Amino acid sequence: MASLQYVVQRGEQLTDVAYEGLQAGDAFALHEMQTVNLKCSVHSAVKYDLIEKLAEQTHLTRSTIGRTLGGIKP
User: Which residue has the higher pLDDT, 4 or 41?
Assistant: First the structure.
């Protein structure tokens, strides 16, 4: 499995920023940047997340989907 790479940036929004500053990307002061390489994913063992797929398609919560599926009798 290929490693995953994430870039995490930390900073803060400057005060008294005009709309033009937001558009130009000058509204934030970057304080720290870190690159993280992960060898595995916490989701790599999940082949298919049925509850997530149903939640996305129905706009119901995972909890509601889980209760519904849990109530199905064989």
Answer: 4
